[in-house]
Amino acid sequence: MSLHRLVEQYSVACQKCRKAAELFALTEAAIRELGFDRLALVHSLWFRRPSPNLIRLDNFGEYADVFIERRFYEDDPALLACQRTNTAFPWTSISALIDIEPRHETIFEEARRHGIITGMTLPVGVAGEPPGCCSFTTSKTDLPSIWRCRAAAFIGAEAFREARRLHGFPMRKRRIPGLSPRKLEVVRLAAIGKSDREISMILNLKRSTIETYMAQLRQAFDVYSRTQICLMAVRLGLIGYEDAMSGF
């Protein structure tokens, strides 16, 4: 099955889920097809104030117990890196987002001891609610291909949206923001993985202009990450899956 088709089928199926466990099983099956072993979809606040109203879905097993018992969540590199970016990132790039300290190395080492060798994390969230993230990990030394990682990011954004619904968070109205042709082009380019710098070069605009557009788009769609922008644009019919996943 093509990655395009996998993500599209997941999008349809996850909206039909009636329980969080059902959503998690569906998501776990999808990310395994992409080459990942485990996933964690969480509201960061859950670790400090556990509540059934907050999202925590994971299959990290024994490592999850260690993570909580040793309070790794206070210094977890991926959680800290989420505060520095709104774009999905591989764990190999965390050192470019935060200064790696001995405590972080300890957390990485403990994760590896439990078979979590490397991974990627997508910051997710909705304005006015606790921030969250979706992480996908593998027991292999390298991540799956960039295309599979991008497909995983779309699945993570979809999973978070539906997890919000299943945890009782109000679903925001699907209003279609009035976007100029230029902003729609920015969304399309972001959807196929172009960075702000690359988009500025393609459209012959200043990078600061693209950064302003992206900030305005996050506000218009009421989301935190650029992947969520692209997902909402697809769901609202502003762009098609063929735009968002050209090359998959």
Question: What does this protein structure show overall?
Answer:
- The mean pLDDT is 89.
- The longest helix has 21 residues, at 146-166.
- The chain folds into two domains: 3-166, 2-Layer Sandwich (Beta-Lactamase), CATH 3.30.450; 181-244, Orthogonal Bundle (Arc Repressor Mutant, subunit A), CATH 1.10.10.10.
- A five-stranded antiparallel β-sheet has the order 2-1-5-4-3.
- It has helices at residues 3-14, 20-33, 62-69, 77-82, 102-113, 146-166, 181-191, 196-203, 207-221, 226-235, 241-244, and strands at 38-43, 56-58, 89-90, 118-124, 132-138.
- Helix content is 49%, strand content 10%.
- α6 (146-166) packs across α10 and α9 crosses α10.
- The radius of gyration is 17 Å and the shape is globular.
